[in-house]
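Batch manifest, entry 17 of 40.
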Amino acid sequence: MLEVRTDDGRTLAVEEWAEPSGRPVVYLHGTPLSRLARHPDEEMFRRLGIRLITYDRPGFGESSPMRGRRIADAAADVAAIADALGLDRFRVFGVSGGGPHALACAALLPGRVERVAALACPAPIDADGLDWYAGLIEMNADEARAAAQGRDALEAHMKAEIAADLPSILPPIEQPILSRPEIRAMIGPAYAEAMRPGPDGAIDDTMALYGLPWGFDPAKITVPVYLWHGDLDTLVPAAHSRWLASRIPTATLRTDPGAGHAAHFDATPAMLDWLMSDSA
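Output type: structure tokens
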């Protein structure tokens, strides 16, 4: 693990995986996960020549908290990590709650980020013309409504939620993929590390996603963007990626009619092929 210091004195915990001499790709983890989260097939990253870089967002794992942070703040953190690793240009992808953070890098670091992929990515809660709650599982809708009431309300809600056995109450379509041994072996430690300091990182992450303005306009993104979404996703409905694709002028959207949220694991190889190429 590498510790990177930010300009405001915080610490970011960073890990590197796969091919040390490969092309750098920064991964933005889902919520609530940590730097230990990534696709479990490390050989896939090696085969594609990827130097995979992961980090704990503020308040998760070994990274310092940052109360009141916005999605946009991820761009400065990723830039600090890139500086510490000596990276001028790099590629970025994010999954689920990591998707908006990846898009922030696309919008705010256009001179350094070459292209971005976001899988099962939520739209801003203030997205104009989007029925944000339509098709959303009640568990996540309640979380977003609590965030809209402020951090205290969200904290009370999430402390009760975190105590529940969340994987067991996810929709049936998600269970076969999440039950794969290699995925369980990755998610268990990644979640445990995220929550080890307590729930504040997850609360701040959720506030940034649902309770605060993102701090950037997706329509201003100029680098190539690849969006993927499963049409049967109720954790983050596919309408969210459709809305993003309609706003981001450089976006390509692929939807999978038979897939739920966790199918992003199966979509990742094709996404990485695109991310590592230079074609449209």
